[in-house]
Amino acid sequence: MDQYRDFAFIYDELMNEVDYNGWVKYIEDIIKNENAKVQNILELACGTGNLTIPLTKKNYDIAGIDISEEMLSVAREKAEKEGVELVLLQQDIAQLDFDITNLDCVLCACDGFNYITYDDDLENVFTKTYELLKEDGVFIFDISSFYKLSTILGNNMYGENRDDIAYMWQNYFDDEENLVEMELAFFIKDEFEKFERFEEVHQQRAYTEDEILDMLKSSGFKNIKVYGDFTFEAPKQDSQRIFFVCKK
Ligand SMILES: C[S@@+](CC[C@H](N)C(=O)[O-])C[C@H]1O[C@@H](n2cnc3c(N)ncnc32)[C@H](O)[C@@H]1O
């Protein structure tokens, strides 16, 4: 499936309203709350480095993994511009293969795990993560909630018409497989003021909190906290982003 190919080059522009500085602060607050000593971080599904780069600037040693070479190429270009050195690897996290163990922290932000659509694959990522972490290491990730994927994105259509980018985004929710298929059509203005069209189909799996908790427990994690929407409170029925914080 073609995901995050051409889209990679406009991803940051379309995400320009996301408060990544606030996201970094929330991650650091979680680390503080957990009394975790974190120097190194493995970031899964790091994309264009929107968290990788600011976290590196805060002196964490980070390696980022993503399946999309195009997303990584944008991350590399941004890092070079900002004079930041990053270790970036192209890999499918469903077959996570990382040499360094005893990690302080593994991170996956902005619904990277919703792209892992099979239970076995996601449980495999959790098990590998458990093996890679040091004793007391911390695993921090978020998912788009079942509510968001089934009801808000659901079978709805979205669109935006900016000066140089327009898109149409049609979703289909399969309530047997709990999968949302997103058909995205983008129109990008070129140097001749003509709009070029490209399309991508993305698929995300809606997981319930209980499904994720069961998989984490089967992978060995015991001390698991669940928070809703950048708070330190339990998710509400209409929370859109669910954060999981687990210690080995
Ligand atoms: C919504 S983006 C999030 C990117 C980044 N974490 C951020 O906060 O901006 C989801 C990312 O997951 C990556 N991804 C999806 N499936 C993946 C897989 N199987 N293995 C590794 N990365 C994957 C995509 O390439 C994309 O970069």
UniProtKB/TrEMBL annotation:
InterPro entries named among the record's database cross-references: Methyltransf_25 (IPR041698), SAM-dependent_MTases_sf (IPR029063)
Transmembrane segments: none
One Pfam family named in its UniProt record: Methyltransf_25
Residues making up the signal peptide according to the UniProt record: none
GO biological process, one term: methylation
Entries under CDD domains matching the protein: AdoMet_MTases
Domain Methyltransferase span(s) in chain numbering: 41-137
Keyword terms of this UniProt record: Methyltransferase, Transferase
GO function term, MF aspect, one: methyltransferase activity
Entry keyword annotation includes Transferase: yes
Protein name in UniProt: Methyltransferase domain-containing protein
